[in-house]
């Protein structure tokens, strides 16, 4: 295939910044009254700065309402940012018109969460996966049908499924169809919004493995949006923890899971149920109380202070900046957890090993 | 009579180790739905029991029959659509075939259910308080004022802040976690002796999930109820359950105490579930070990062992797995499985092939 030479070129550039978000903001206006005057804004995403390197998987995690899905939609320019910039492969795409954006959609694609809602029930699988070729007017070597059948095989479906409709497939198979559509134009970046959370455990593992294989084969870069911290650890190279529209901590996988610095990350990790009964009693848990505050009126200072057990007066007034506390490990906290040694044991590993 | 039929009739209900008659006993339950395409055998010969003060975890993927089982216990299948046979004994009374009026007297009072989706399980038109009051006043002859006070107390118990004013809120004014708490309050309004929680935390964030699991645990300790928790998340049952039943294609494939299931599982499907999950408490593995294929259609359940098309060990006993349905039997110490593999094979495969990869 013609991508071979490109793949070689991409390999040499692995590790360089491919997607850069700087101070990215999205505020959804709240309008009231006859004149639809703006009375407030949902600060869904409020000042995100991060980079995604070529060939890596960056995961965005957090509770519902933290802005992770909005971030994914901003990166793919499905919605217009309120502020900040996004650059893709060195090119500023922040305010490109939809016409100017269209050629770039070959490079950045999205996998959606709901395998039932994201496929048109009245189109055949062939039409769904072939749509990107038609929309982008891409000429394929042996015609669109052949290209679609190759894609079906690539994601572990049978080429005979070409003329079937989405309702004839199970959730896992539908998610594979969505992935095939995403891959059609050989994108550089795929933003995957909860790609496996709607699937059964055994199917989830199949899709995770498939996405890994495809990443290796096509040098894909993933931005993974997820809430399951176990899956995130398995798939990611780096992880960004979000809370109320801000990044609380961003680090490579190993240091985030082994030495979480932000209290919120520690709390999230300690809340994950672990399938091991021997840890039931010796696990130190941090239980956050209450719910995530409203992003319409986020708390002053550090947004996490209302639920944080380490919060002091400083946290209520001054917002902690996201700073690098050790190599490649940034956290936004005035009182980060012990940066050399973890003070608590969120998974209970030490207790059961003893 | 063939051996096949023998094994169907001879299934023994697994009993928890403690003495006395179990509070809930399900015997040879079958729930079939006739459809135009054929009979959907959602639950097929299922037996289990739960004692007071104990928690049974039912684990399985979608379509394994776990929710259908809970709806049959609660008597919530629409009359005429489901064919139910077998016995469901709640404190000795058989619920199968009981008049709907009599089941209604038990529902809410002696058994209650927490549903997965708290938004669709609550009526959007009535306040949260009035929905709790309704259930309480049906079973208790009290004035509205007393019932309202009870509702406020319950909301307080389940951790709703400012319950006196929130009791008059509508469900849409509550967040997901608060709705789930309100539903738990509703389920607990008459101190039920049996509480069924069907995926109580699936729709919730992990921090809220931890709060809800703590709440269920505390309330159970206080009321000494029997609890059935239905989930697809092995982590959740590891936190809560005393005993675990793994279901596949409408049948139980493994049943034992929770530590036993996690430390020495014996059924290939349970191995598959454990291998599919990435785990925070272990070294990160390079590859997950998924179960191949997809769950079977419940209209055409495979001959023999229903798991045989997906099982890596199906061919090791000749064609036994493809022709004979394995009997669900005690293999020692109350550990029940339905599998044709020999005891030594199971131990060897678990110790040498499965456990090292987890």
Mean pLDDT of chain A, to the nearest integer, reads 87
Oligomer: heterodimer
Work out the number of β strands of chain B. Answer: 13
Strand order of the largest sheet of chain B: 6-7-8-3-9-10-13-12
What is the number of helices of chain A?
12
Q: What best-fitting shape of chain B do the alpha-carbon axes yield?
A: globular
Q: In terms of structural class, how would the helical and strand content of chain A be classed? A: alpha/beta
Instruction: Estimate the strand proportion of chain B.
Output: 15-25%
Instruction: Give a count of the beta strands of chain A, DSSP E runs of length 2 or more.
Output: 12
**How helical, in percent, are the residues of chain B?**
25-40%
Structural class estimated from helices and strands of chain B: alpha/beta
Let me know the CATH homologous superfamily of the largest domain in chain B. P-loop containing nucleotide triphosphate hydrolases
Can you tell me the overall shape of chain A? Answer: globular
Characterize the biggest β-sheet of chain A: 8 strands, mixed
- What is the helix/strand order of chain A? HEEEHEEHEHHHEHEHEEHHHEEH
Rg result of chain A:
22 Å
GO molecular function (chain A): ATP binding
InterPro entries (chain A): AAA+_ATPase, ABC_transp_ATP-bind, ABC_transporter-like_ATP-bd, ABC_transporter-like_CS, Oligopep_ABC_C, P-loop_NTPase
Protein name (chain A): Oligopeptide transport system ATP-binding protein
Family (chain A): Belongs to the ABC transporter superfamily.
